[in-house]
Write a structure and sequence with these properties.
The complex is a heterodimer.
Chain A lengths: L6 H25 L5 H5 L1 H11 L14 E4 L5 H11 L39 H14 L6 E6 L6 H12 L5 E7 L2 E2 L2 E2 H4 L5 H7 L3 E6 L3 H12 L6 E6 L22 H20 L2
Parallel strand pairs in A: 1-2, 2-3, 3-7, 6-7
Antiparallel strand pairs in A: 4-5
Helix pairs in contact in A: 1-3, 1-4, 1-10, 3-4, 3-9, 5-6
Chain B lengths: L18 E3 H15 L3 E5 L9 H6 L4 E3 L4 H12 L4 E7 L1 H6 L1 H9 L6 E5 L17 H6 L5 E3 L4 H13 L4 E4 L4 E3 L14 E4 L6 E5 L4 H13 L4 E5 L2 E3 L3 H11 L2 E8 L4 H10 L6 E6 L9 H7 L4 H13 L3
Parallel strand pairs in B: 2-3, 2-4, 4-5, 5-7, 6-7, 10-11, 10-13, 13-14
Antiparallel strand pairs in B: 1-8, 6-12, 9-11
Classes of the chains: A alpha/beta, B alpha/beta.
C-alpha cells in the first residue's frame, strides 16, 4: 500500500532487511547448499517490496488485483522465502526446510508448491517473458495491478531475455517494471570478464525502455525509483539496481565465490554476529 | 473392412479422395474457440499464415500476439498468460516449438502447470522440400517424456479441428501435432473423437496382427490393410490420435487377441508411438512388434511422396512389416 515513507518507517524497513539477512544465513546453514551473494545483496529491495511497495495480502495470496512479483533469477529464492515468511505467507519455522525432501521451499521456486509464488524459475532468462504474459493479461482485462520482474545481470547473457525486452517495448507494457540485480558477479567470475554487459542503461534505452540507475542497497532511493517507474505511460521501465553481493557480511561482500555456496557453521556464526551488531546500531539511530 | 460404427469417409479409397492439411484443421478449430471462449488467445513466432493462426489473428486481433522469430519468448509469455486466466495457443514449426524451446516449455509450462496449448506444425518428413532442419522427427520423443502432458496427433483435418477444440477443454498443457501437406480425409464430422481413446478404423475377422498408426500415416495403413485383405491376410488398423495418455486398455486387448503389432508414424522409430506401445507391452503382454517410421536417420529435401518411399515408410514397407511380424509370432 502506498504510504508515507517517513524516517520511522524507513528505519523499520532497514531493521526488517537486517532480519531477513539473518534468516537467510540461518536457512542456508541448515540447508547445506544454496546461494549466499545474491540473496544478501537483494534483501533491501525485497524488504521495500513486501513491506511498502506491493499491493498484496499475505493471508490472501491469490487476491485478484494484487501486484505480481516475478523472481526470474530463481536461485536467490532464499531472500524471497525469508521475506514471504516474515510478511506472513507461511510460518518462519518452515524456512529451515529449504531444499529438503517434502519441503514446500524448493531449491528453485516452484509456483504451485508455495503460496506467494507467481512463476517457476531457475533456468535463467525465462522470468521476464512470464512477467510479460502476466502484465499482458492485466492490460487485456483492464486491471490496475503492476507486475515487477526481478532479474540478474548474468541472465542477460541468455538470448531469451532480449527477446522479452523487445516484446515488452513493442507492446508498450508500462505496467511492467523490471529490477535488475546489478551486482557484477556470476558463477565463473565478474560479469564484465565473463560476458561484458555494460553499457547496460544505454542498451535498454536503445531497446525503447525507460532506464533508471540507483543504489540497490538504498531503500529510500529504490522506493523513489519505483514510484517514478509507476508513473511512466509509454514504455516499460528497468531499474538498474547496483547492489553489493553478500551485503551485510564483510567476508562475502563483492566476492563472486559466494555466489553459489552457503556458509559453514563458523562462517554463519560470524555472519550472524556482524548482522546483529548492525541491527543494534540501527536501533539506536534517531 | 472400414468400421461402420465410426462413420468414416466412405470415399477414402477413391483416387480422388478429398485432401486437406491438418494445419488447416488447427486454424478452423482455433477460430471456433475464439468465438466460444473469450479467454482463448493465440501467439505466433513469425509463422502465422503457415500455421493457420491467421484466421484467429484476423478476427480477434486484440487476442493475438506476434512474437517474431522468438520461440522461447513465445512459450514463456504464454506461460504467464496461462497462469493469469487465459488459454494460450502457441504455434510454430515443431522443430522450433517444442524443439528450440523445449526447456522453456518444460520449466514454465509443464512443471509450472500453466494452461498452454502447444501446436507443433510441419511435423514429420512430410514437410518435404525445406529439408531435415525443418522436419520434426523427434518431437514425440521429447514431449512424451513430460509428466502430465496430453499429446494429440490427428489423422486428418477434420480430426485436427476436433483435437484443437478438445485441447481447450483439457485443464493443463497439451501438445498438438500438425503436418504441412494436404492429406486424405479419413473421418467425417460424425466420427466421434475422444481424448485417450484408440479407435479401430479397419476391422477384420480373426485378425493376425494389429497396425497402430498415428497422424496422416493412418491412410497408408488403411491402404495396406485393404490390399492385405485381398491377399487373404487379415489385420486390424487402429488410429492412435492421442499419444499420451495412451489407451492401454485397447492395446492390451489387441495384444491378447492378435499377438503381433506394427506401429506406423512419421517420426523416428525411437521414442514415438512405437516406443510408447513397446514400453507398455514389455511390462504387461510382451508382443512381437515391427516399427515403421524413420529408421534412426535424418531425411532430406524432396516431395513427401518421394521421401516416404525412399525412407521406407509407405504402403509397401508397412505390408512387409506386417508379414514379418506375423512370421515372428511364437
Amino acid at each position: 500500500m502506498p504510504q508515507e515513507l517517513n524516517e520511522e518507517k524507513l528505519k523499520d524497513l532497514k531493521l526488517k532487511a537486517n532480519k531477513i539477512r539473518q534468516l537467510i544465513i540461518e536457512m542456508l546453514l541448515e540447508a547445506g547448499s544454496g546461494h549466499s551473494g545474491g540473496p544478501l545483496g537483494m534483501a533491501d529491495i525485497f524488504t521495500a517490496f513486501y513491506f511498502h511497495i506491493l499491493n498484496h495480502d499475505p493471508k490472501n495470496p491469490n487476491m485478484e488485483n494484487r501486484d505480481r512479483l516475478v523472481l526470474s533469477n530463481g536461485h536467490i529464492c532464499p531472500v524471497l522465502y525469508a521475506t514471504l515468511a516474515l510478511a506472513g505467507y507461511f510460518p518462519l519455522e518452515e524456512l529451515k526446510t529449504l531444499r529438503k525432501i517434502n519441503s514446500r521451499l524448493q531449491g528453485h521456486p516452484h509456483r504451485t508448491s508455495l503460496p506467494g509464488l507467481e512463476t517457476t524459475s531457475g533456468p535463467l532468462g525465462e522470468g521476464l517473458s512470464q512477467a510479460i504474459g502476466i502484465a499482458l493479461a492485466g492490460k487485456m482485462d483492464k486491471k490496475s495491478y503492476f507486475t515487477y520482474c526481478l532479474t540478474s545481470d548474468g541472465e542477460h547473457e541468455e538470448g531469451n531475455t532480449w527477446e522479452a525486452v523487445m516484446f515488452a517495448a513493442k507492446n508498450k507494457l508500462n505496467n511492467l517494471i523490471q529490477v535488475i540485480d546489478r551486482n557484477y558477479i556470476q558463477i565463473d567470475g565478474r560479469t564484465e570478464d565473463i560476458m561484458p554487459l555494460d553499457p547496460l542503461k544505454k542498451k535498454y534505452e536503445s531497446f525503447n525502455w525507460n532506464a533508471i540507475e540507483i543504489d540497490g542497497n538504498d531503500i529510500k532511493s529504490f522506493i523513489e525509483a519505483v514510484e517514478k517507474a509507476k508513473s511512466m505511460l509509454d514504455k516499460p521501465t528497468i531499474i538498474i539496481a547496483k547492489t553489493i553481493p553478500g551485503k551485510g557480511v564483510s567476508f562475502m561482500e563483492n566476492d563472486y565465490h559466494w555466489h553459489g555456496k552457503p556458509p559453514n557453521k563458523e562462517e554463519a556464526v560470524q555472519a550472524l554476529n556482524e548482522l546483529k551488531v548492525q541491527s543494534e546500531k540501527l536501533k539506536v539511530t534517531v | 473392412m472400414l468400421n461402420p460404427d465410426l462413420k468414416l469417409n466412405t470415399k477414402i479409397f477413391d483416387a480422388d479422395v478429398e485432401v486437406k492439411a491438418t494445419r488447416a484443421g488447427y486454424g478452423e478449430g482455433l477460430l471456433e474457440l475464439g468465438e466460444k471462449n473469450p479467454n482463448v488467445v493465440a501467439l505466433s513466432a513469425d509463422l502465422t499464415e503457415s500455421t493457420y493462426a491467421h484466421l484467429f489473428a484476423e478476427k480477434y486481433p486484440d487476442r493475438f500476439f506476434q512474437c517474431g522469430v522468438a520461440e522461447q519468448n513465445m512459450a514463456a509469455i504464454a506461460a504467464g498468460l496461462g497462469v493469469s486466466g487465459k488459454i494460450p495457443f502457441i504455434s510454430s514449426y515443431a522443430t522450433f516449438s517444442p524443439g528450440k524451446n523445449w526447456e522453456t516449455i518444460r520449466t514454465t509450462i509443464i512443471y509450472n502447470n500453466s494452461n498452454v496449448k502447444i501446436a507443433g506444425h510441419h511435423a514429420g518428413i512430410m514437410t518435404g522440400p525445406d529439408g531435415a532442419t525443418h522436419q520434426a522427427t523427434e518431437d514425440l520423443a521429447i514431449t512424451r517424456s513430460w509428466p502430465g502432458i496430453t499429446i494429440f496427433n490427428p489423422c486428418d483435418a477434420i480430426e485436427a479441428k476436433k483435437a484443437t477444440i478438445a485441447a481447450e477443454e483439457i485443464t493443463g498443457p497439451v501438445y498438438l501435432r500438425f503436418t504441412r501437406d494436404k492429406t486424405p480425409i479419413i473421418t467425417t464430422t460424425e466420427t466421434p473423437f475422444e481424448m485417450g481413446k484408440i479407435q479401430t478404423f479397419w476391422t477384420a475377422h480373426n485378425p493376425l496382427a494389429t497396425i497402430f498408426a498415428t497422424g496422416y500415416m493412418l491412410y497408408y495403413a488403411l491402404l495396406t490393410a485393404k490390399e492385405l485383405d485381398e491377399e487373404g491376410i487379415k489385420v486390424l488398423v487402429a488410429n492412435v490420435s492421442t499419444i499420451k495418455p495412451l489407451d492401454e486398455k485397447t492395446i492390451l486387448s489387441y495384444a491378447k487377441s492378435t499377438k503381433a503389432f506394427v506401429t506406423v508414424e512419421d517420426h523416428q522409430v525411437m521414442g514415438g508411438l512405437g516406443g510408447a506401445i513397446a514400453e507398455f507391452l514389455a511390462k504387461t503382454v510382451p508382443t512381437p512388434m515391427e516399427f515403421v517410421g524413420l529408421q534412426n536417420t535424418f531425411a532430406e529435401s524432396g516431395s513427401s511422396k518421394e521421401l516416404i518411399e525412399k525412407y521406407e515408410m509407405g504402403k509397401d514397407s508397412i505390408k512387409e512389416a506386417v508379414k514379418k511380424v506375423i512370421q515372428r509370432k511364437p
